[in-house]
TrEMBL record:
KW Cytoplasm (keyword) present: no
UniProt name for this protein: Oxidoreductase NAD-binding domain-containing protein 1
Taxonomic lineage from the root: Eukaryota, Metazoa, Spiralia, Gnathifera, Rotifera
GO function term, MF aspect, one: oxidoreductase activity
UniProt cross-references to Pfam families, sorted A to Z: NAD_binding_1
Keywords assigned: NAD, Oxidoreductase
CDD domains assigned to the protein according to its UniProt record, in alphabetical order: FNR_like
Gene Ontology terms: cellular component: mitochondrion
Domain FAD-binding FR-type: 39-145
Length: 290
């Protein structure tokens, strides 16, 4: 599995990095990538584990951080340093909660999909509550607020499958800003697109619509859900893929200049990026998995 973090402005790629975590020997990472080598590695305790679907589990980690130096931005990941007896591969799992939520709960939320990839397979099948793991936050894909207080762009969030993790973290961060009485809202509108193979894979669907009810009522946020490999009877979920018409209508509703954040498989990102470029979206940031 390769993770690519990229930003596109005026159709030219200006930042590109690869996060290697593949089953092939050439892609197995024995060193951290996307994190600063001088930053500390933190001990964390597995606080709880919950099944979100037959193939996705939710993990909450308590970070041992007596000096209060642990820090992340919405959209970032945690590199995991598992015991050498399990694997020598360093792998990353994207964080789902917002920095504000972490500051209140002192817990990091992850959602991990079952695969045959050694670190993921261990976490999904063998990791236990109260187990100690070692982690380091990092990543180049994260929410980037406007550089001036007068530039309130609209935000387009698009994710596929387990690629929802960093996008949900960004959405939750924007919700925190919307609810805050201490800082002005630094965005105009938000549109959220979430697609998965099956309805049960839309593991954040209900929690998002519940927590973001007021934003939706305020006409600040619209949410859109899609499943591509089954027919469901929920009228709020589309039984098809995201298409160019969906995105064109979104750009019209968002009104302001749009910053797009995408996360999902490589082919999905390529298709969505091509559509957004044709719609003249100038700033596209994405994280690919394949």
């Amino acid at each position: 599995m390769i993770r690519v973090i990229c930003q596109t402005i005026k159709t030219s790629i200006i930042k590109l990095s690869l996060r290697m975590s593949s089953l092939s020997n050439q892609s197995n990472r024995l060193n951290s990538f996307g994190t600063n080598e001088e930053d500390p590695i933190y001990e964390a305790t597995v606080h709880s584990i919950k099944n979100l679907s037959p193939t996705i589990k939710q993990f909450y980690l308590a970070i041992n951080d007596p000096l209060k130096t642990f820090y992340f931005q919405s959209g970032m990941f945690l590199d995991f340093y598992l015991s050498p007896s399990i694997t020598s591969i360093i792998t990353g799992f994207s964080i789902c909660n917002s920095p504000l939520n972490y500051s209140k709960t002192h817990l990091i939320e992850l959602a991990i999909r079952e695969t045959d990839y050694a670190p993921t397979k261990y976490m999904f099948n063998d990791c236990q509550v109260n187990e100690k793991v070692f982690v380091k936050p990092g990543g180049q894909f994260f929410y980037q607020p406007p550089t001036t207080t007068t530039t309130n762009n609209s935000i387009l969030l698009i994710c596929a499958g387990i690629g929802a993790n960093p996008i949900v973290s960004i959405l939750r961060h924007l919700l925190d800003i919307h609810q805050s009485n201490n800082s002005p809202r630094n965005f105009h509108r938000i549109e959220f697109f979430y697609t998965a193979a099956t309805r049960e894979d839309l593991v954040f669907h209900h929690s998002i619509d519940l927590s973001c009810q007021q934003m939706i009522k305020d006409n600040v946020l619209r949410t859109n859900y899609f499943v591509t490999r089954e027919i469901n009877d929920d009228i709020k979920i589309n039984n098809r893929r995201i298409n160019a018409t969906d995105l064109q209508q979104s750009i019209q509703w968002l009104e302001k200049p749009v910053t797009a954040y995408l996360c999902g498989p490589s082919s999905f990102i390529d298709d969505i990026e091509n559509i957004l470029k044709k719609l003249d979206v100038k700033k596209i940031l994405y994280e690919k998995w394949w």
